[in-house]
Structure formats: C-alpha cells, structure tokens
Amino acid sequence: MSLEGKLGSHHHHELVIQVAPPSTTLAGHGDLRQHPHPFRQLFVKQILTHMLINFHAGYFRISLSLSSQALLWKTLGELVDGTHFLDRLLRALPSTSFKILWSLALFTLLALSVIYLVRCLLHFDMVKAEFLHHVGVNYLFAPWISWLLLLQSSPFIGTSSDCYTALWWVFTAPVLALDVKIYGQWLTKGKRFLSNVANPSSQLSVIGNLAGSRAAALMGWKETAICMFSVGIMHYLVIFITLYQRISGCKCLPVMLQPVFFLFIAAPSMASLTWHSISGSFDCSSKMLFYLSMFLFMSLVSRPNLFRKSMRKFNVAWWAYSFPLTALALASVEYAEEVKAGAAHSLMIFFVTLSVVVSFILVVFTAARTNLMVFIIPK
After folding, report:
1. How much is the pLDDT for 107?
2. What is the DSSP letter of 26?
3. What is the structure's pLDDT at 15?
4. Mean pLDDT over all residues of the chain?
5. Is 12 left (phi over 0), alpha (psi -120 to 50) or beta?
6. Using CA atoms in the order 119, 124, 128, 133, what is the torsion angle rounded to 10 degrees?
7. What dotted CATH number matches 40-373?
8. Is residue 144 over pLDDT 80?
9. How many helices (H) and strands (E) are present in the chain, helices listed first?
10. Residue 130 confidence (pLDDT)
11. Any transmembrane segments, and where (predicted)?
12. Longest dimension (CA), the chain
C-alpha cells in the first residue's frame, strides 16, 4: 500500500482463525495449562502490530483539531464584553467544562504521541519512508503544533512561569530542526525542490513557525516571536505562490486527501492571530490576513465537487477540515473584539458555531469507527 493511501484511509481485512473442537483426551497435546490463551495472545499481538504499521503522522490531525478547539474556548472565555451571545453561553456552562476539553485534547495528544514513539522504535523504516514522502513529512510538524497550541491554552501553566518557557523550548526545537532540514531541501536538492514537492500540506511547516512565534509573543519574547514569524510568513508567500501557479512538477494529492486543501485557510488565519499577539492589537496587517482567510474559505466552499469523492467514505483525512475552521474562528473572535460591529459579531458567531459543529461531528464519527481507522487486522 502506498503511503498516500495510508495517510487517508485503509483497506479492510479480517483475521480468520479456525479452532478445532476440543478432543476428549489430552494425550499428545501436553498440559494446556502451560499455554492458557495462545490464540488470544496471537490475536492481540496481530492487532498491535498492524495498528503500528498502519498508524502514521496524519493521525495528528485529530490532536491539532482538539488542541485548537481548547484554544478557541479559552479565547472565548476571555471575552470582555458580557453582551456577547457566546459569552453568556460560556457563563452558563459549568466552570470545569474548559478544563475537561483541554484534558481530552491532552490525553488524545499523549496517546497519539506514545503510539507514534513506539512505531519509531519498532518500525523506523516506515517512519523514514514517511519523512521522505512529500505529504507525510509535513505532518511531522503536526504533533509539535498541537503541543504549542495546548501550551497556549493551558489553564494550569502561566505564560510567565519557568515551566512555560521550558516547554516552549521543548516543543519549538523540533519545529526549528524540521525547518532547517526541509527548507534546506527546497533550496538545494534537485529532487526535493519546492516546485516538485509542493502540496497544500506544505503549509504545516509555516503553521509550525507561527504557532511557536505566538507562544513566544505571549511570554514577552517579542524579538524571538518576530524572528519565527518572519521565517514562517516568507516561506508562506513562496508556498502560496507555488501552489497557485500549479507548476507541472507539483504532485497532486490523491482524492482521499482533498480535505487538506482547507489548510489554505489555516495558514493566514494563524498568521493573523500571531501578528495580533506580537503587535498587541488587531491592526491592518492582522485584518488583511483575516480577509485573505475568509476569501479562501469562500473559494473552497463554493467548490463542493472538489471534496465530494473524498467524502464518500469516512477516513482520518476528514479531520483536515476542523483545524483550519477553528483557526479561522479564532481570528474572527479577535477581529470582532477589535471592530465591535454587528457584521463582525455575526461572522464570529458563524465561524465559531461552524468549527464547533464540525469538530463534534468528527469526534462522533471517529468514536464510532475507530476500528476502521487504526485496528486493521490482516488476513
């Protein structure tokens, strides 16, 4: 199976085990008590092995979505104007609701990280193949972006604490290492030129820089934040132009990965939020990036045929819808707080509601079909 297929969906297999009826005598079979559950152990081993084989970095789309939802609800909880409908709704919810959501996002990210770490230890060749893949390599940014979003939304760690600073270094260092490796390949390696490997998921490298920049800005490291923002936004311009040109060398995404096109919305939305945190106000630069996000959103939703085939059967690629919509909702909240107009407030209500509904639907589908996504059993 190609890595492209594994990034979106899996074939379904089944394990058929035939057990002979028990004999009336134990002669010749030894003491069965020495091997109480041989078939059960084999079955569990098969499940775990093939779960690790079929798991990939694309599953971190789930943690990206949940972490961004936690950040969204924290941002909504900090709204100053008590007249907002969403503000009144939040006040009506139990005080522990946000902590439960944040804890769910943390647990999900921890579980995915542990599984991927075990995969690295037992199937390093597959991880290496993922690193060399033009789509898979970009999702190696996803776990670190998720951690940075969780850090920004944490109800337990203040931005001025030493713990926040230490965790920022831990989560940002892999992003910078991947930056140096991947951006260097785009610049120097013939087969890895950006024009040959560019696809919508390439924007995750930009989002990684922006998430690190915003986390630095929140703890007052303005120069560091500007540095990371500069690297991210300049490469965003290069990626955006390359994707817009549709250079013949660019490899197209398989049908099942078409939802990844929604990352076009996520990058400018995150850039808008990040610049707001750096500058201290939702100024013209933040507004322009927000307007670009809205334009790209309208461009995508007006072309449903682009996503129709990928929606025929549920797979983990569907989670690519949630994070970009949540990033856009976050930007709309900051925009509404700055503009304080009826239209801006309506936009905020619309995007927040849309992101929450989409995320909830994806959680329900995933909970109902987990066995179809990871626990794939061979013949």
Report:
1. 95
2. -
3. 41
4. 83
5. beta
6. -40
7. 1.50.10.150
8. yes
9. 17, 0
10. 87
11. 100-119, 131-151, 223-244, 256-276, 288-306, 318-336, 348-368
12. 85
- Whole-model pTM: value is 0.84
Question: What does the alpha-carbon distance between residue 135 and residue 200 come to, in Å, rounded to a whole number?
Answer: 9
Tokens of 82: 């008590």
Structure tokens at 377: 């059993």
Q: What is the number of other CB atoms lying within 10 angstroms of the CB of residue 294? A: 18
Least confident of 5-9, 162-166, 321-325: 5-9
Q: Which two tokens stand for residue 15?
A: 């394990």
Nearest Cα to Cα of residue 300 among 273, 320, 274: 320
**pLDDT of the residue at 88:** 67
Of 112, 181, 178, residue with least CA distance to 143: 112
Distance of CA 279 to the CA centre of its chain: 26
DSSP code for 81: -
Given a contact cutoff of 8 angstroms between Cβ atoms, the answer to whether 325 and 358 are in contact is: yes
Cα–Cα distance measured from residue 135 to residue 130, given in angstroms and rounded to the nearest whole number: 8
Q: What is the pLDDT of residues 102-126, one digit of tens each?
A: 999 999 999 999 999 988 888 888 8
- Does residue 376 register a pLDDT over 80? no
37 contacts 347 by C-beta, under 8 angstroms:
no
Please tell me the distance from the alpha carbon of residue 99 to that of residue 317, in angstroms, as a whole number. 27
At residue 49, φ and ψ (nearest 5 deg) are -60, -45
Taking the C-alpha atoms of residue 348 and residue 85, their distance in angstroms, rounded to an integer, is 10
Q: SS3 for 208-255, per residue? A: HHHHHHHHHHHCCCHHHHHHHHHHHHHHHHHHHHHHHHCCCCCCCCCH
Residues whose CB is less than 8 angstroms from the CB of residue 126 and which lie 6 or more positions away in sequence, other chains included: 53, 119
Q: Sketch the domain layout of the chain as residue ranges.
A: 40-373
Query: How far, in Å, CA of 237 to CA of 233, rounded?
Result: 6
Q: Mean pLDDT check: name the lowest of 61-70, 82-91, 156-165, 307-316.
A: 82-91
Integer-rounded Cα Rg, in Å, for the chain is 23
The length of the chain is 379
How many alpha carbons fall within 13 Å on the CB side of residue 276?
Answer: 22
Q: Given CA atoms 127, 131, 132, 138 in this order, what sign does their dihedral have?
A: positive
**Which uninterrupted H or E stretch holds 71?**
helix 60-77
Nearest Cα to Cα of residue 270 among 296, 290, 288: 290
